[in-house]
Amino acid sequence: MGMNLLDAGNGYFWLLTNIINTQSGNQVRIRKIDSVGNTHTTATHGNSTGDLYAYELIENKDNDMVFLANDLNGTATPMLYELDDVGAEIANYSYSQTHPTRAFGLDELPQGGYVFAGEFDNGADLGAIVIKTDDAFIEDYVFERDNADDEYFRDVIVDSTGAIAVGATENMGEGGFDGFIVHLDTLGDSVMTETLGRALDDVLMTATQSTQPKGGILAGGQSLGVGGNGYLIKAIKYGEIPCQLPRFLFVDGFVSGNRVSIDDANTILGDATKEYNLIQDAKYHNVGHLCLYGVNYLFEPGNANATRGGSRYDSLLNEFLTYAAREGISCAMMSVPDTGTSTFHSAGLYNLKLSVIHNNYKQAGKIDYFQLEHEFWNANGVVAKSGPTAIYDEKSLSSIPGNMRNTHFTSVYNDHKNFLDTLNTFRFNDANVLAVYDYIDRLFFNWDTNSTLNHYKDTNEIARSLKAKELEKRTNAIFLSHYRGHSSSYKSLRFLHYDSTSSTVKRFTKRLSFFGQNTRKTYLLPLFSGEYYNFPDSCGDGLETNFLGNYFRDNMLFDNDFHHVEDSFIYQYSGMKYDTSNQYIDNVKLSGFGWFKYTCLESLIFFNTDLNECPVYPLLLRVSPNKTLEDNNIIDVAQTVSSAKSIQPNPTTDLLSIHGLQKNAQVSVFDIKGKLQFQKISTENTVELSLIEFKPGIYFIEISEENSVETFKVVKQ
User: Fold this and answer.
1) Final residue of a domain: which of 601, 616, 651?
2) Which of 277, 302, 561, 707 is least enclosed by beta carbons within 10 angstroms?
3) Residues 593, 288: contact at Cβ < 8 Å?
4) Would you say residue 617 lies in a domain?
């Protein structure tokens, strides 16, 4: 039985086969064949009385061959066989597990070692398993999923970020098997799990790396049963951020109403003109994601049969989401879980209903994301769903005794964590929802922060740090509010800074330092507000919401647009990358920008609607905590580099001379956001660069030589 084919070069192939012998044992045979099928070399592996089945054959980085097999003689056990260039055995390795285990997919790690994936049998059902070895074939980690019902892997692919295993699962809510994709990091921790499927049983059988620019994987599978077909899917790995940072728009008034009625007159959904204007405005301003307020009202029991113009609202929602998807715009359902998470569950069922005829991956007409809006930091105005203070309703929250406030805050915060856990369960259940987003302003109890009674006030940095660590584990991305009041000075665009005198900027900067504590990356989305108050013209809740709306309407400015605000933030965020006191920053990813809210922004037309490029940071040592990028002529690394090198003059207005180079050194110039501006290869020991066309500011000169990389900071005046 032929199992796998490997290109041996020069028109030859290695064919991996299983010898099925009902009279004795089963063995594995490898044949070297030419392009017309003639056999030139044959090698047989396994005991003639044994029970060995092979599944995959690869060539490793040492140009030897490795095949994956299962020894089924007794307790099923995966094995790796290492072969030389003529197919003869070098060694074999057995990987016995607690339960009978069979493996089917194999890949080699870039740094050496192997990953293989399959299934184990715990006696009640099948579980999915991934096993990693080092380059000496010694077992490194084992990842197992042993949830209710059956699930298994059939293939795995790896790269420097970890592994992606594909297979099938029976426990995701659709009543049958669904295709199953799990992304593991390099430590074997599950970063993300996704499923896809229809009413039929679906299984993914094989996967390969995509060669397209955006990367990701291609996976092949099939639908089982009557009417089933083979299919090919493409998935981009979790954590892959577009090279341009996406823009999100928070759409208030998309559905206006409450739990028992919809206010048609003030609702965008179902009004063809308003829907068209929203989509066109989003397209013009390069908004790729809409966060829709009020969709949760459509899934309240009191609005189950709500209609507009003779059409049910859920049908109108389907039409709008299809319209948005065709325009390249994805949509999130935002909800305040006043009545718990039932509306999110109903939204999942709405998506699932469409799955009967469509595969689940980002299909038009479906809700793409869940967005939680639950302000636990303002616990004095939030009803607890659990804990001792759950007896207080909206009308009696003010009656909570002072000595119970900390308990109430803890209960509301625990509710927030539980909500996220539940939303992730809904997301995993059917793959209709691609991600869960959180929204955070403060990590402390925003109540009488000067009071000795408030244990969780802003000075309790340990509590704030623990909350960031717990919450970032439960979300795919977090919107962090950065609301700044507008003034005639630059301060309206100051969000992050080491030594700011602004209490707001200090809070934003300190908050950032708490994220990135977990092994997986934390994806942050700064959220800005376009609200304004300029009596009698206003859009917001009064003077306290006088944010960037007035900045955008300031006629004395010429670059007051989305792009400039985002660009300013990137500049300041890049400065945080070089702060040694911010120990987790390398584990945080700037992933896009959010804008609140549509009704305050819809009348604006910006000339520069470009998205900002993802910052790429050069190899720099960080500045010490008591210094800033603005007050150092040379970054600290310059104090330790070879004295043979010098860069003069610094600061400069034009020419820059670099002395002491090796020949063929690569000289790169980066701006403060890490964007490459210029690059050349030296042919002599001295290079002259002209910065005359560069804007005034800070730049980094990175010199890459045969055995070293050194970075200098220069100032262009």
Assistant:
1) 601
2) 707
3) no
4) no
Tell me which DSSP letter residue 262 carries.
Answer: B
Residues 583 and 709 in one domain: no
Which pLDDT does position 635 carry in this prediction?
35
Please say whether the beta carbons of 120 and 108 come within 8 A.
no
Locate tokens 């110039």: which residue? Answer: 669
Query: Residue 81: pLDDT above 90?
Result: yes
Three-state helix/strand/coil letters over 2-71: EEEEEEEECCEEEEEEEECCCCCCEEEEEEEECCCCCEEEEEEECCCCCEEEEEEEEECCCCCEEEEEEE
Instruction: Give the HSE-up count for residue 139: Cα atoms under 13 Å, Cβ half-sphere.
Output: 12
| 443, 574: one domain | yes
Same domain as 634, residue 494: no
- Six token digits for residue 609: 């609607």
- Output helix, strand, coil percentages for the chain, rounded to the nearest 5: 20, 35, 45
CA distances, 681 to each of 50, 343, 687, 700, 706 (Å): 61, 60, 9, 16, 12
Question: How many Å apart are CA 544 and CA 485, to the nearest integer?
Answer: 8
Looking at this protein, which amino acid is placed at residue 476? N
The domain that holds 78 is classified in CATH as: 2.120.10.10
Residue 152 phi, psi dihedral angles, 5° rounding: -160, 160
Residue with tokens 């070297």: 32
Q: For residue 213, how many other CB atoms are within 10 A of its CB?
A: 6
415, 423, 290, 279: which is closest to 347 by C-alpha? 423
Look-up: residue for tokens 């206010």? 263
Beta strands in 72-184 (DSSP E): 77-83, 89-94, 101-108, 114-121, 126-133, 139-145, 151-159, 162-169, 178-184
Q: What residues form DSSP beta bridges with 195?
A: 180
- Judgement on whether residues 428 and 560 belong to the same structural domain of the protein: yes
388: tokens are: 């001792």
The whole-angstrom separation of Cα 289 and Cα 325 is: 10
Whole-prediction pTM value? Answer: 0.67
